[in-house]
Request: fold
Amino acid sequence: MGEGEEVKDITLTLPEGGSFEGSSTKVTALDGLTRTGVEGVATPSDNSLKVVFSEPVSQNLLVRLEVEGMAFPSEGGDVVVGGSYTTGAGEQKLDDSKPIETIANTPLQSIVSFLDESPAVAAWNSNQFLGMFFKPQLLVTSLCTLAPGWLLCLAIVAIAYPIAIMLGLLFAFMKISRYRILRAIAITYVNLLRGTPLFLQIYIMFFGLPMMNINIDNNVLGVIVIAVNASAYLAEIFRAGIQSIPEGQYEAASSLGMTYLQTMFYVILPQTIRRVIPTVTSDFITSYKDTSLLSSVGVMELMMFAKNLTSVSGNMTPYVAAAIFYLIVTLPLIKVVGNIEKRIAHSEHGHGLRPKIRTNEEGSAQAEAELGDEISVHAEALEREGALGERVMLSFNSVAAEV
Amino acid sequence: MALFAKKHKGFDAATVPPAMDANEAASIAFAHDQGLSRHHFVEGEHPAVRIEHLNKTFNGETQVLRDVNLDVWNGEIVVVLGPSGSGKSTMLRCINLLETPTAGHILIDDEEITGKSGREVARVRRELGMVFQGFNLFPHLTALENVMVGQTKVLKKDKEEARAEAIKQLEAVGMGDRIDFKPPQLSGGQQQRVAIARAVAMHPKVLLFDEPTSALDPELVRDVLGVMRELALHGNMTMIVVTHEMGFAREVADRVVFMEGGVVVEQGLPEDVFDHPQHERTKQFLGSIG
Reply:
């Protein structure tokens, strides 16, 4: 700055695409360590901001501008803030700032800022109910933020359930065993687990084990608790299924010379499985929903994320987003259960597609697989991630540009 | 379940004399049965099934069988008649150990089968085909698979061989055109014919029929009886048939056994029993069913 000159105004410039609209600016001018009464009026225009001082600032003062709420170009990258100032001698250039690293705007942020600006959204949010439970911006944000929690829920139940099925079968067989001791063990196991709340079981496992210096990873422990709990219910389902097969089936199998194991594997269990598929699917739905209880002990699943986001935003919308995540899985499964039930009822009465009646010539040829009432489970809806992959949530609201 | 759980507890051989020496038993039976059966007796042959002093009591109080003795010879067709509750089905079920005899002996080809357990019982049952009143086909398998499953899993035949045998037997019972049907898609008569094919495909020594036509509509009975008649006359089978079909008994049976109150009341050639019953109860029974 030249000798004896005074600065009338300062202009800050962002690269093309940035803007100062909506920024707030604070001007401080220091004379040594004393604050002077200099003030400034900031006027944004496109990508520049002009600060006009109430009185010209003399050269020995230190001027500090704090600008908040400026927007960097959405492409991201290193951004350099340029500038100039005006003295009696005309416009002088300021040194460029050091490059400021910025990250490109995520699609989510674009959507959120688009929604923020939309008057329709503002009108929607002005309704107290809609704004509290279905705030579009927060819904979009929640869906992205909650996705990892949802995936953890799916992972927990997807690992726990096969284990539960194995355990369930084991205890079902123990329960119908001819050995009293095995029956007693199975009955105790099933009754204790079915007779106490899952919530209590979670507390005992998560707080009890660490007290015995057994430390297991939270997620693993979650899988164990869910698996053990579900196995008790499955044991009962399987036992009832096995016992619902008529005695005549055992008699027919053993009159062919089948052993107990052969009878079980080739005759009883295949029929049992068909019968219990609807009930087991319903139980799977219950287990999936029950993972939400794990949020109470710090497993970072869906409910946990929803709870956190709600307490940050003071809005119920994250819970609605969580509900959507639960329903994505449960609704199709509920539909599947209904379909299978219909199908089983159908085939047990001999309705449905019939195979072709063979003429004598083809009679001894090979069998075509034209089975009418084969049950096929549609395992849809379990894989729908994609779309909600990202959760980058950075804000540039308080970048202070010091000059 | 109970079938396996029970095993053979409760069988008490001590209350009856030990099984007789095979040769001695055979010669006594030989002398006894000659003239009672159309069976062509061969000097020195042994019975295929020997029931000795068979007793069965349910729940320790209801005595269903009292000291039943019966010999069935190779290739013989024995029809067992009697009012319901006479113990004829129970006797049949004791033969392949679906019911555990309370006391007595059952021998298949001179081999004692009572008092055996687990695997051995399964091995014995292989030799005894059974056709049930309620068919008891496996509903999750097709007709073909129903006839194959015993061959592949129990006899360990390879699939192609079992399949060819199954198709042969299904064609023999007139079900060759519906081998891909599942039991619920078949009529009762068709199911029973598949059940017969399933039993025959195992090539058992003895075929047991437990009221095979009792659960069928009258118009379907004829088909099933036709299949059984064919099997009896040309199948070279040993058959024990519990039934109420008098016409079938008269035409096909080598010997008719009349049971009542858990004992064998009378037995003999069909024409003797039907036309000249010796016992009052037999007369009453035959009279009552016309």
